[in-house]
Design goal:
The complex is a heterodimer of chains A (365) and B (164).
Chain A (H helix, E strand, L loop, with lengths): L5 H21 L4 H25 L7 H9 L4 E7 L2 E6 L1 E6 L3 E6 L16 E4 L2 E4 L6 E2 L4 H26 L8 H21 L4 H23 L10 H17 L3 H8 L9 H44 L5 H38 L5
Helix pairs in contact in A: 1-2, 1-10, 2-3, 3-9, 4-6, 5-6, 5-10, 6-10, 7-9, 7-10, 9-10
Chain B lengths: L7 H136 L3 H17 L1
Classes of the chains: A mainly alpha (365), B mainly alpha (164).
């Protein structure tokens, strides 16, 4: 990072300007993080090449490493780097080991004044993971970039929807106003098109809080992830895993006799067929949430990878003119990702409600 | 591989944060929102239904009113007709009565007139008789100065009496 070639610097400023303008037109609310993201990506690009550049200035830029670094979690929230200035938000590390017990310290302790990685208090940060120097197992409860983003989104969701909820409580029969009128059609969409259609008039109301929560949680986090500098939360397998596990429990705890009969003794099927069918159905119970987990994770991560790959093209070919093609295309992809953010939230909620619908379905043969 | 290895810490935080988020949103956001949406829809539904029934009632009322007006009008016409007939009858009756009364009066007057006339004629006759007697007396007195003339006259009269 410390060393930058003059050509790199020149490219950097040109591309920064181009991307900055394109992103400004894309996201009105992302003025500041916009710059952050561009710088972040270039910088990490530079970052990735810099240590190499120290050794041998001809070594190639590694886009794979850059992209994986960007879609992975980290222990501090890095926005951008300009020269020797690192705009990084240190986050609290919370680690537990059997010998040292629970320890809380800032992630900035892992860097010295030259921005080099150092050990702290018997812990080292390697590839974004905290390890104990003595090889002990470390239980890492740190507030990582993703956890911080998760908390941020929770605060955002709570403040928006509790605020809206209050307005509804105050005058339930009034026409909606402001934020209320922005979200009311979406809430009604989730209720009528997702819940009512798939679960049925009789049971849908019970699941509305859960469905609305997952819908808005996924949608908001998908969009927060698109803000340059934002965390790739819904593209993280741990997050989608938890969402899928919750969906699994909600579905199966609400399973009626019809649901279980369909799994263990599919009606209208010859007895000997059940030998094949029942195992398939049992696998299906677990495959459904598993597909939920993979679908969301893969879609969001893929979107991030595409955007980062497009930007990386400029660095791979070391040609600023390529920005003329790449910038409009990444702008286009970013808009697509905004749509995908909604669609994935919709699909996740939709599929969960079809699973619930199958579980609570009454006997109708 | 690291990409698809879930982080223990993130699972932990995601479970906790999502759980709290669900609880708070369900209690303070979704419950009032869903409830008031349902209430609002129901009230709109009811209002629409009410307006429909009101409209139907209004139409019914209007039809009733028209019927009422028509029947009132018919009744009024009948009353007027009846009254006219009655008044016509009364007028003709009065005319008839007046006629009879007038005829009676005329008859009475005529009878009275006849009587008056008869009595007047009688009176005149009497007067004439008296006059003629007086005249006759005077004539006789003048003629009966001689005896012959008296006798001649008596015989004449006697002849007359026989004749009449």
């Amino acid at each position: 990072m410390q060393v930058k070639t003059s050509t790199q610097k020149m490219y950097f400023s040109n591309i920064l300007l181009g991307l900055f303008l394109s992103f400004i037109s894309l996201n009105v609310f992302a003025n500041e993080p916009v710059a952050a993201h561009d710088s972040a990506s270039h910088d990490t690009a530079a970052h990735a090449t810099a240590p190499a550049a120290q050794e041998a200035k001809t070594e190639k830029f590694d886009p794979g490493k850059l992209i994986l670094h960007h879609i992975a979690d980290e222990h501090d929230w890095h926005f951008f780097t300009i020269g020797h200035f690192h705009a990084t938000l240190p986050l609290p590390c919370i680690v537990y080991t059997e010998s040292a017990g629970l320890q809380v310290f800032s992630s900035s302790n892992f860097k010295n004044e030259h921005h080099e990685e150092i050990a702290y208090n018997g812990f080292v940060l390697e590839h974004g993971k905290i390890h104990a120097e003595n090889g002990e197992k470390v239980y890492d409860f740190s507030i990582t970039k993703n956890v911080a983003s998760l908390l941020l989104s929770a605060v955002l969701l709570l403040s928006i929807f509790i605020g809206i909820g209050k307005k509804y409580k105050e005058n339930p029969h009034r026409a909606p106003k402001g934020l209320q009128s922005l979200f009311e059609p979406i809430i009604i969409f989730v209720r009528d098109e997702i819940a009512k259609n798939n679960i049925g008039e009789k049971h849908y109301r019970r699941f509305m809080p859960y469905l609305l929560t997952i819908f808005f949680f996924i949608w908001f986090n998908n969009m927060l992830g698109l803000i340059p500098g934002g965390a790739n939360l819904t593209g993280n397998i741990a997050v989608t895993l938890v969402l899928a596990i919750i969906a699994f429990f909600v579905t199966n705890f609400n399973g009626r006799s019809t649901y279980w009969t369909h799994i263990f003794a599919m009606p209208g099927v010859p007895k000997w067929m059940l030998v094949i069918l029942t195992p398939v159905e049992i696998v299906g119970i677990f495959m459904k949430p598993f597909s939920l987990m993979v679908r969301l994770f893969a879609n969001i991560t893929a979107g991030h990878i595409i955007l980062l790959s497009l930007v990386s093209l400029i660095f791979i070919f070391e040609n600023a003119a390529l920005g003329l093609a790449v910038v409009p295309f990444s702008l286009f992809m970013n808009v697509i990702e905004l749509i995908v953010a909604f669609i994935q939230a919709f699909i996740f909620t939709m599929l969960v409600s079809t699973y619930i619908g199958a579980a609570v379905e009454e006997h109708h043969h | 591989m690291e990409l698809i290895t879930p982080d223990f810490g993130l699972i932990f935080w995601q479970l906790i944060v999502f759980g709290i988020l669900f609880f708070l949103l369900a209690k303070f956001a979704w419950k009032p929102i869903i409830q008031s949406l349902a209430e609002r829809e129901q009230s709109i539904d009811e209002a629409i239904k009410l307006s429909e029934t009101t409209r139907a009632e209004m139409a019914e009322l209007k039809a009733g009113n028209e019927q009422l007006i028509a029947s009132a009008r018919a009744e009024r016409d009948a009353l007027i007709k009846q009254a006219k007939e009655a008044s016509d009858a009364m007028i003709s009756q009065a005319k008839l009565d007046a006629q009879t009364a007038a005829n009676q009066e005329i008859e009475k007057a005529r009878v009275a007139f006849e009587q008056e006339k008869a009595s007047a004629v009688a009176a005149i006759r009497k007067e004439a008789a008296t006059l003629s007697l007086d005249l006759a007396e005077k004539v006789l007195k003048s003629q009966l100065k001689d005896k012959a003339a008296q006798e001649k006259l008596v015989t004449e009269w006697m002849a007359d009496v026989k004749l009449s």
